[in-house]
Write a structure and sequence with these properties.
Elements: H1 3-21, H2 23-29, H3 34-43, H4 61-74, H5 76-91, H6 97-103, E1 112-125, E2 128-138, E3 146-155, E4 158-159, E5 170-176, E6 181-183, E7 197-206, E8 211-212, H7 229-256, H8 273-306, H9 312-340, H10 350-361, H11 371-380, H12 383-390
Parallel strand pairs: 1-3
Antiparallel strand pairs: 1-2, 2-7, 3-4, 3-5, 5-8, 6-7
Helix pairs in contact: 1-4, 4-5, 4-7, 5-7, 7-8, 7-9, 7-10, 8-9, 9-10, 9-11, 9-12, 11-12
Amino acid sequence: MTKTAQHLLANIQDLAPDIAARAADMEAARRMPLDLVEMLKFIGVFRVFVPGSHGGLEFDLPSALDVITALGRIDGSVGWTAMIGIGGGIFAPLLTREIYTQIYDKGPDVIFAGSVQPAGTAEAVQGGWRVNGRWPFASGCQHADWMGGFCIMTRDGKPLPGQDEGMPLIRGCFMPADHWSIEDTWHVAGLKATGSHHIVLKDVTVPDANFVDIANPVPCVQAPLARAVQQVLPLLHCANSIGVAEGALDELVALANTGRQQFRAMAPLRESEMFQAELGRAVADLRAAQGLLQMQAASHWRHAVAGTLQDEAFLTQALQTGTWIAATATRIAETCYRLAGGIALYETSPLQRRLRDMQAASQHYAVQQRHYVTAGKMVLGDPQISRKALAA
């Protein structure tokens, strides 16, 4: 890890007490407070994937994941929102050089929000595409500088054919935040402070230069991860999930070290062998999740630098990793909540928030259990592909 990465992680830790103290207020507001967003900008959180040529930190993938994990350990919503803002830096190089320069013309601290669901349409018109759509789960949209939504591309009202037979052509549309409207829809059980509202474009003509193609990526600047956006995104989710699990264990251990003894228990929590065994099992789960992400991140980064990451086998690896880690982190949060006893029920307990945040995070499409099907089919199929799917 570079000194720059160490310095950023140290700055994040300095923010931890203030963020933890404001967690309940952030949930009530259903968004990140703007002064916290500005502080995260100031210390460099949103520039980790921006190249040095544009004032960014240009972190490698493992170091960037460490940043997301550190924030998720403090608060799940903060980690998630930072993850989304950081992740936009992988999409941006797929725009034209002109638009990329426009994005970073005032500096590298640009925040992205949006949705990869193809919930919009882009109809071919003179001067570009007429875009209409309503996209869900646009985390951080209230403080974003640029936003994106994926569209089915059409001509004369009919979908244009994509590269896969029977599938429509899909592109991501990116525009400055002031072009979008926000619908207040984020009334949810977990990740409450992420402000993941719906965003809308209505009859907006968007130039072709403002669209990205993640299926056939051609970065306008040196950006190894931009060549394989789909392979990278699940690992960003892994980082926040591990952070939330780490935070839940921190809080459970802190509770046990207060000397707490549950009603009718024979001994305080920290002296109970049942508690110790369950805690030990949860820590083992966490170490396994940390080790898997470290291995996968190192492998992904190695292939990204070599230009070989854009491969179906590596996408399968990422989805497997994301799905398993999300389920494991949720199990850890559930264990911590259960071991704490009745005190965890109260909204003042961070353990109930950790559990709700992980249950919400595990609903994301990138970490759904159905992704194991693709992995199984790949392993049963072509032997060469099988070796790639199983190898690190």
